Amino acid sequence: MTVDRLTCRELVELVTDYLENALPPEDRARFEAHIAGCHSCTSFLEQMRRTILLTGKLSEESLNGDSGDELLKIFRNWKKSNFESE
Question: What is the pTM of this model?
């Protein structure tokens, strides 16, 4: 049986489930195989882990004014610039 390789874009979409241990075993294996060979995605995963650690339980209600929209804008721009040339 051949296991399909995960693309960087697919990894980004699965990172939350991975960090929450919610991926099925086959998808988790594909995820881990990808990060073992992709420096960019390994860095992205570590950034997500640090962000979660630093923000703790940041809720939407705790953000002031347009902070939530600004954070989404930053993330979308970062995601686009890092994964558009896949």
Answer: 0.63
